[in-house]
Amino acid sequence: MFTEHFIEIDGCRTHYRRGGKGSPLVFLHGAGGVMGVLPFMERLAERFDVLVPDHPGYGKSDEPAWLENIHDVAYFYLDFLERLGLEKVVLAGASMGGWMALEVAIRNTSRLRALVLNAPAGVAAPGVEPVDLFLLSPEESVRHLVHDPRLAEERLARPMPPEALDTVLKNRHTTARLAWEPRLQDPHLPKWLHRIDVPVCIVWGAQDRVLPVGIAHELKRRMPKAELNILEGCGHLVQEEKMAEFCDIVFRFA
Amino acid sequence: MNLVLFHLMPYADLDLEAGRKNGTVWVTLPNRNFDPAKGHQLYNRFLDELEYGEQLGFDVLAVNEHHQTAYGLMPSPIVTASALARRTSRAKIAILGSALPLRTHPLTIAEEHAMIDVITGGRLISGFVRGIGAEYHTFGVNPTFSHDRFHEAHDMIVRAWTEPGPFSFQGHHYRSRYVNLWPRPYQKPHPPIWIPSQGSKETIDWASHPDRRYTYLQTFSPAKVVQRYLKMYRDTCTGYGYEAKDSQLGWAVPVYVAESDEKAKAEAKPHFEAFRNVFVKMPLEMLLPPGYTSRESFKNVMKAKAEMFGDITLEKAVELGLFVCGGPATVKAAFQNYWRDMRFGNLLVLCQFGTLPADLTRKNMELFAREVMPALKALH
Hints:
The complex is a heterodimer. Chain A is about 35% helix and about 20% strand. Chain A has helices at about 40-45, 70-85, 95-105, 140-145, 150-155, 160-180, 215-220, 240, 245-254; strands at about 5-10, 10-20, 25-30, 50-55, 90-95, 110-120, 200-205, 225-230. In chain A, a hairpin with a 2-residue loop joins β1 (about 5-10) and β2. Chain B is α/β, with parallel strands linked by helices. The interface between A and B is medium-sized, with 17 and 18 residues.
């Protein structure tokens, strides 16, 4: 159902996957990138025209010299929406991608219909210390991402082709460039969250060990009109660990 | 040959078990393990050792910079170099080096080095490094900008030392409308610059460039690796159209000399192994954060991980040339042989390492200076 495309935007050859029919839904991936078409993408594509770009510096997209911080990514995605002529977009994002969605939305919501945020980075909460992803070994990272240890074992058992290692290192590099300091947040972002004038839906795993659920409550405090869904028995990768529940929330909300 | 006495000033009283249990003595080892009273004794002992190095005939006394670690207690080598500046009169003082990208503003380094150079009447050797990977965790400086910041900071410092001020410097990472250094350095055009490295082609290409010709120091690597990188430096110079002087090459290595080979190994063993297997150790993610090295180098390190990150014995380290240890004749012959193969004009010996106590450190320094150094100084 999904096909692969490239488009040059801001001098960056950008790779994206697109599938399904309906109104547009752009999904912004997390720090780990998107290694292929995942079940939640197939499910969303039953009702949406789903676009899943590799961010600049990730996956099969270029690493443009201008990419220095999260704000550059926000402006890039405003150009992306414009170039593809997308309107009334449901902008969804997970973790780093949720952060990017927030950065886009505080700047300009004219092409957006709604935001769906899965455990977004970007905002810090007092007394809540996210795990330091950059000090975890690859194996520890996998174990931190999901709540169900069987899921972690499954992921760890999958063999990794050598070219996938290059992508892993590339994604890790860009994540460091965008999120090393301040770690996974933009201290200026909370000042402008009030500018977001489209409906916002936040989804969080109750057992998230990467960005603990305390951050969800802080985000809700700062965006009181947002809908907050906390999923039990779920870690950081909401759209993978609770695929059906996540998709149902999107279908109901958007 | 130029003989350099190099000190790391480790927290030699470390509870090694605490270090082992934590997996590393870098970044995360709780600082309750540091006892200021013991620290007081150690700093003064180590500074005495460096000052004694001048009496023993070393040409250069060298200090370096590391942060938030028991591996070395010199978060500011400026402090130790300053202490030496007024207590020595002949030996050069080398800062190997200041970690440029970790500073908020490079002009502070230009100023501090210039001060020491002026106070000592031109006895300073400046060294520039990027800081090791762990220190990007310590300060939160983004490692993906490490190379850019290093080069820009270097350019700003050298221009501040050499160009008439005030002038404006507008870089990408650092800016100043008024670069106008007081004091200017004593040496003309500026203090010599040495570049310590664990070995990288990019660093060699940059340091050996005809505009710079900076002395390249290969630090704490197996002798074969040292030889490979020093040869790469010479070949790169040839590629640039000039012949490298021996003085452009250096090797930094821990050394232990005792009355006999057996005695040397027996005395050094626990202290060297503590150095190699506790003080040096850290996880790959801490050593090489993203962007600190190229992704190709990172993949090579991943392949060599078992060898690099496992424990090794003193015997294995001697065999690899990671450590030079033995009676005076053995150590002298080893360095003469290494020199014939590599022709390094600077030898940096680490006479104190890990937990090596004061009495053994002094004996090591004395035997090295009396029995080994004269023959090495004669090499050229």
